[in-house]
Amino acid sequence: MRAALAADRDHWRRRGCGPAAFRRGYHAIWLYRLSRYAHERGWRMAAWLLWLVNGWWTGADIPPSSRIAGGLFLPQPYGTVIAGAVGRDAAFGIQASIGGLLKEPDQDIGGGPGLPVLGDDVMLEAGAIVLGAVHVGDRARIGPRTITLKSVEADEEVMPQPWRPLPGRNVAP
Hints:
It contains 3 helices and 12 strands, in the order αααββββββββββββ. By secondary structure, the chain is an alpha/beta fold. The chain has one domain: UDP N-Acetylglucosamine Acyltransferase, domain 1, CATH 2.160.10. The strands form 3 sheets. A 4-stranded parallel beta sheet has the order 1-3-6-9, with no helix packed on it. It comes from Methylobacterium oryzae CBMB20.
């Protein structure tokens, strides 16, 4: 846990965001790490209470069953949901989320039943969502407001579809 917190602080320092201890995103990571520690020791009530405090204080929903390696960068935790496995030095934008789908709840690729796995150095822009048992490769980037339901290769960049007019919508009343 100490090594992961040191990696988290180091990632914040590399990004030039000042002291991590004053940032609510770092508080979310710190509370998650405490909750995960309690979860691994079998202290389910303590883990659950820390998860609730984390949601109340930071606005982030990071269950203790998630597995997050060191170096997570979470500058704006409000509305962020992280349910699955996340590799080293990942970065989440505001309201970026990963989670499961009810479509294939039994499929487990390493993040948990029906949950995604993110590789190392993955970046999720603001509002990006990764759903289901998908694997996002190392150094991949998921663009803003992109919903990803399929696996993403390493070093790949996924962006949302361009806007297009809908037929019959440009008629004046």
